[in-house]
């Protein structure tokens, strides 16, 4: 094998993958937190080292050549191997200190986790916490986070999970809305009210179907997928909606509407990569998260 290929730098392969996945130097630069000129030089260096063109330059970005397309799979395998090395090495760190990166939904990160993290900092001042509020699925396999708080059970084999319990939901509306429209006393009156729903998330529509009521997106005259904005719409009086009981009860502007309906629940799962779970600082933060979140579940 050509010695130059044996010495192929991982940073060049990483740049190649980022451009292949985003289709442009600008997108890849954002993904890797670097500059377009740096990425351009890295792509050129890899092409020179391999003696092959990897991308066609187009007006709207970069497209893989046939050679470039053939290299995507082995480059992804190389990325997986590098990540495994990083995970295994990090998993051997024995000190109860360092940084733990937690990801959770925007609502969970904004409402439930701050007091839990404050307690962590009090108990373990040598552990730094990074909180990533995101409703996207952060990839634990690529160290985008060390621990994830999920409202579903992840299925990847490389992950370890712990089911903490189920979060009860309730039906809520603002005091101002109910003062104007009245409190519905039965399902017929309930259906005549305005509702706040999700925009693209089908969860609430699916919930209605479980109770034999077929509604579509247009049934909800106010729609929003962001849960924090959704709660703000409820508080403002846009209609009847749904919230975790602990959140609804704690909001002085909201009133629970008891329709005698048993609503679905939200599961809470803690998740981490198996190689990292036994790292002392991650295990300690895991345990403190579990302890702090349990009062929310049934």
Structural class: alpha/beta
Stretches where pLDDT is under 50 for at least 5 consecutive residues are: 1-5
The main β sheet shows up as: 5 strands, mixed
Q: What percent of residues adopt helix (DSSP H or I)?
A: 40-55%
> Main sheet: which strands, in order across?
4-3-5-12-6
Structure description:
- This protein is an alpha/beta fold and 298 residues long.
- Helix content is 45%, strand content 20%.
- The chain contains twelve helices and twelve strands.
- The protein has helices at residues 3-6, 10-22, 25-32, 36-50, 66-91, 106-123, 175-181, 187-190, 203-210, 227-236, 245-250, 280-293, and strands spanning 55-58, 61-64, 98-104, 127-133, 147-150, 159-167, 169-174, 196-197, 222-223, 241-244, 254-256, 266-273.
- The strands form four sheets. Strands 4-3-5-12-6 form a five-stranded mixed β-sheet, with helices on one face.
- α2 crosses α3 (25-32) and α3 (25-32) packs across α4.
- Residues 1-5 have low confidence and may be disordered.
């Amino acid at each position: 094998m050509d010695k130059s290929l044996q010495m192929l730098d991982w940073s060049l392969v990483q740049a190649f993958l980022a451009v292949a996945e985003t289709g442009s130097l600008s997108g890849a630069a954002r993904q890797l937190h670097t500059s377009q000129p740096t990425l351009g030089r890295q792509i050129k260096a890899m092409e020179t080292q391999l003696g092959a063109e990897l991308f066609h330059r187009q007006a709207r970005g970069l497209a893989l050549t046939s050679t470039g397309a053939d290299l995507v799979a082995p480059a992804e395998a190389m990325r997986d191997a590098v990540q495994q090395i990083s995970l295994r090495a990090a998993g051997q760190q024995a000190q109860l200190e360092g940084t733990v990166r937690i990801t959770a939904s925007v609502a969970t990160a904004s409402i439930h986790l701050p007091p839990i993290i404050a307690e962590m900092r009090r108990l373990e001042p040598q552990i730094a916490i990074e909180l990533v509020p995101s409703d996207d699925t952060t990839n634990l396999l690529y160290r985008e986070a060390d621990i994830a708080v999920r409202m579903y059970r992840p299925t990847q084999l490389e992950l370890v999970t712990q089911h903490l319990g189920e979060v009860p939901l309730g039906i809520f509306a603002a005091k101002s809305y109910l003062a104007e429209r009245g409190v519905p006393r039965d399902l017929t009156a309930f259906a005549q009210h305005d509702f706040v729903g999700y925009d693209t998330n089908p969860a609430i529509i699916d919930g209605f179907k479980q109770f034999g009521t077929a509604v579509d997106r247009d049934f909800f005259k106010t729609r929003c997928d962001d849960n924090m904005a959704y709660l703000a719409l409820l508080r403002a009086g846009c209609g009847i909606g749904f919230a975790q009981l602990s959140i609804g009860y704690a909001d002085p502007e909201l009133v629970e509407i008891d329709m005698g309906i048993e609503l679905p629940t939200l599961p809470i799962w803690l998740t981490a990569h198996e190689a990292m779970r036994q790292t002392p600082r991650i295990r300690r933060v895991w345990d403190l998260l579990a302890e702090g979140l349990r009062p929310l579940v049934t």
